[in-house]
Design a protein that fits this description.
This protein is α/β, with parallel strands linked by helices. Helix content is 54%, strand content 7%. The chain has two domains: 326 residues, Collagenase (Catalytic Domain) (3-Layer(aba) Sandwich); 198 residues, Neutral endopeptidase, domain 2. The longest helix has 24 residues. The chain binds zinc ion.
Length: 656
């Protein structure tokens, strides 16, 4: 893999499309040549900047696994043994094929043996421990209103299609997807030796549709206030009258919890009605479907193929499965993420990269501070609170100070499904044990080998895993324009999340608390609603539009990211004029670097699915969307009223 500062050109001019003017379609100008000449690999749903980095990260993980596997005499129970044998258990395709449905047979039999709906509490709790999905998702997180303690959350779950809306649309495309989903269910039932697969696929679909009917939309689920509903055990019992809550909590290992946070109270009520009304035998088929879908990728080839055909090919447009070794790496990354991560950073993350990042983050925070201080639309009381929140931002870079422990986990080289189940159970115990402990501020929610970054509102922190700190995001050899346009934008984006339409609802201590004056909240919303309207007009595929509400937080992050990074960049020049490089001004290079990090090509099916499920706008609009709101972009490229990128000054949205 390429360490930070590899010898790739900082700006890849060869990927431009000079037939398009930057003033008319900036994304196309900066990336069009590359897009035209690039074919998405047949085993991928998208390709480009961070997807390629993610490939390189998986190459690095593969190297780690190979080197560990080649060593003799690994001690049983040691970390290297676990990594090696989890990988081997997936790679042993012969054994996996030989076993067929056998590894999950016992679970299917348990479901068949259910004699009354009173057993659902036990069954769902056991499923949760095994990592099998069910209608009630339970998880541990910091209490949204008291970040010093952990709480148990309930959230809607239990669907086989990517979103509730898929169940209610009846245009030709959606009907085709439903048919394909049913075909997969029927196939999985047949493969498992269960009768009447096709007929049952209809029953299962209809039951899921009823569950989906009680689901909140993704836009509703973004609302941090509406999804914070603290309930006592009695109150939840009142909502789930047809469900054995007591046993559910006992078997889940959380019998002592007296209060819970329910994200969607009306969902529990709707689910309760469905428990009552749907027949036991329909429910059993539904449970079997959950087990089959969740484990199909780890069973014999025909199971994995049926799963791939629907979830990857039909829904994502992926032409063929990734090589088995790639999928094995995914499994190791998923189940033993920090064990691999520790090795990964030792080999791939130079300490000087961390120092440089701390520098950049510091500069971006200064830019945010100055932006808040100079805002015309925000009054002093809100500014004081905003600055207070900014001051309390924590930053994590590269890798965690404290690594997760896997010592109680048993991994066997010839037991793939057993490994997955033990791993799920192990993580379940890790999670519920949090309920009796103080909040662990050192925890990371991404592994170091992940090419991504996040803002965590409960910890009020921005986090940058090692794997994103590479070109084209972060380049130790490139000039400041390139780095501020790329990783600077990413840092600004994550800071921006702390103040986006949802992030702004919590304070510097990570607690939901309204620290805005009414007047300032109104002024803020006047700006963001204009942004919603702008993005709703974007049409990435004919007839399919961006959901302005669903993507609002990310779009605010993108706009803020550009603004802060640009100001920090100018600040870093210390009053000097940015130098020309390759005939381009520093300002132009800043924006071109930004466009380059979103150089992604994705399949039509994937774009359509993401428009429904992803809170991020498609790559093109993560560039053109924010820059056309930013005055300095107009200056850098001399954009005029007749140009397609032009927005009249009064239509431009400026938040920071
Ligand atoms: Zn984001």
């Amino acid at each position: 893999m390429s360490a930070a500062g590899a010898d790739k050109p900082a700006l890849d001019i060869s990927g431009w499309n000079r037939d398009t003017r930057p003033q008319d379609d900036f994304f196309e100008f900066a990336n069009g040549g590359w897009l035209k000449n690039t074919e998405i690999p047949s085993d991928k749903t998208r390709w480009g900047s961070f997807v390629i980095l993610a490939e390189e990260s998986r190459d690095a993980v593969q190297t780690i696994i190979d080197e560990l596997s080649a060593k003799d005499g690994l001690k049983n129970g040691s970390n290297p043994q676990k990594i090696r044998d989890l990988y081997r258990s997936f790679m042993n395709e012969e054994r996996v094929n030989e076993l067929g449905v056998a590894p999950i047979k016992a679970y299917l039999q348990v479901i068949e043996g259910i004699s009354s709906k009173n057993e659902f509490g036990k069954i769902w709790a056991e499923a949760g421990r095994l990592g099998i999905s069910n209608p009630i998702g339970a998880y541990i997180n910091q209490d949204g209103k008291d970040s010093t303690r952990y709480a148990l959350y309930f959230t809607q779950s239990g669907l086989g299609l990517p979103d509730r809306d898929y169940y209610f649309q009846d245009d030709e495309r959606s009907t085709g997807l439903k048919e394909a989903y049913r075909t997969m269910l029927a196939r999985l039932f047949d493969l498992a030796g269960l009768s009447d697969g096709l007929k049952k696929s209809e029953t299962i679909f209809e039951l899921e549709k009823r569950i989906a009917g009680a689901h909140w939309t993704r836009v509703e689920n973004r609302d941090r206030i509406k999804t914070y509903n603290k309930k006592t055990r009695e109150e939840i019992k009142g909502m789930l009258t047809s469900f054995d809550l007591k046993t559910f909590l006992e078997v889940s290992g959380v019998a002592n919890e007296s209060s819970f946070i329910v994200r969607q109270p009306s969902f529990l009520e709707g689910l309760n009605a469905t428990i009552k009304e749907a027949s036991l035998s329909d429910w059993k088929d539904y449970f079997k479907a959950r087990v089959l879908i969740d484990f199909a990728p780890y069973l014999s080839e025909s199971f994995a193929q049926a799963h791939f055909e629907f979830y990857n090919k039909t829904l994502g447009g992926q032409e063929e499965p990734e090589p088995r070794a790639r999928r094995a790496v995914n499994l190791v990354n998923g189940s033993l993420g920090e064990l691999i991560g520790k090795e990964y950073v030792q080999r791939n993350f130079p300490p000087k990269a961390k120092a440089r990042m701390l520098d950049l983050v510091g500069n971006l925070k200064v830019a945010m501070k100055q932006s808040i201080e100079n805002l015309e639309w925000m009054t002093t009381p809100t500014k004081v609170a905003a600055l207070e929140k900014l001051k309390k931002f924590n930053t994590k870079i590269g890798y965690p100070d404290k690594w997760k422990d896997y010592s109680g986990l048993t991994i066997a080289p010839d037991d793939l499904v057993g490994n997955i189940i033990r791993s799920a159970g192990f993580e379940h115990e890790r999670e519920i044990s949090k309920l009796s402990k103080p909040v662990d501020q050192t925890e990371w929610f991404m592994t170091p080998q992940t090419v991504n970054a996040y803002y965590n509102p409960s910890m009020n922190e921005i986090v940058f895993p090692a794997a994103i700190l590479q070109p084209p995001f972060f380049n130790m050899k490139a000039d400041d324009a390139v780095n501020y346009g790329a990783i600077g934008m990413v840092i600004g984006h994550e800071i921006g999340h702390g103040f986006d339409d949802q992030g702004r609802k919590s304070d510097g201590d990570g607690n939901l608390r309204d620290w805005w004056t009414e007047e300032d909240a109104k002024a803020y919303e006047a700006r963001t609603s204009k942004l919603v309207a702008q993005y709703e007009k974007f049409e990435p595929e004919s007839g399919f539009f961006v959901n302005g509400q669903l993507t609002l937080g990310e779009n605010i992050g993108d706009l803020g990211g550009i603004t802060l990074a640009y100001r920090a960049y100018l600040e870093s020049m210390k009053g000097k004029w940015p130098p020309m490089v390759d005939g381009l001004t520093g300002e132009q290079r800043f924006f071109l670097s930004l466009a380059q990090i979103w150089r992604i090509k994705q399949r039509k099916e994937t774009t359509i699915r993401r428009l429904k499920t992803d809170t991020h706008s498609p790559p093109k609009f993560r560039v053109n969307g924010p820059v056309r709101n930013f005055d300095d972009f107009y200056k850098a490229f001399n954009v005029k009223a007749k140009d397609s990128m032009w927005l009249a000054p009064e239509e431009r949205v400026q938040i920071w």
